[in-house]
Amino acid sequence: MSHTVVGVFETSNEAQTALQQLVNSGFERDNIDIAPQAASKATDHDKDNDSIGSFFRNLFGSDDRSKHYSDYARTGAIVTVHAKSAQEADRAAGILDRNGAVDLDERTSGPVTGKETTGRDTASTGTTIPVIEEEMQVGKRSMETGGVRVRSRIIERPVEEHLRLREEHVRVERRPVDRPATDRDINSFKEGDIEMKEHAEVPIVNKEARVVEEVNVSKGVEEHEENIRDTVRKTDVEVDKFTEEELKRRREGGDRPNNV
Fold it and tell me: What is the pTM assigned to this prediction?
């Protein structure tokens, strides 16, 4: 459930200061709306249908309180905070009150004139200078600084080995002879077959896969300390009062001090 907190200020400067205090207190700027001071000379019919009148009618309905609030708000500035919880709404209301938000219930109890009525006529002008101070917030995030890519692939390379091989060859020689036959010759004088086989050595290639190296891929974490140096800015406001000599010199020169 969302909660809406509305603060009405007499000047735009007060509203801007309250807005800055809300942001400094942790409220998101996107959840804060501000309507600048803009006095209107429109007719009553136009006022009833403008955005300010519609805003308060949505909050309070079409009663006298809605009309009194919208009439007063047209002469000032409105800061609207869209809080996320009741606790956040209470905190926003406290910040708006501390920075000069008008109590409309008190102001609208009498005739609405756009300013407080006192026993005498008073008028004042002023300028609000917001004092802004920067704060350095240091965090850390992970970023890629390097790495390795390990790619495995199969490559071929030619190898060569020297091997001596043995071959057998059968030789048949026939030569003419002339001698008397012996008993051995007579015993072998019969039909038959004689076989003599040739042999030769041939190369045999076997391949054996062996693990010759292991590649282990891992990463380690190291920590180190680092000093972060930067500069921050803030508003430095100095107030100097005019001396009597300076006032006299300005009067004699026809210069008038500006009302601040």
Answer: 0.36
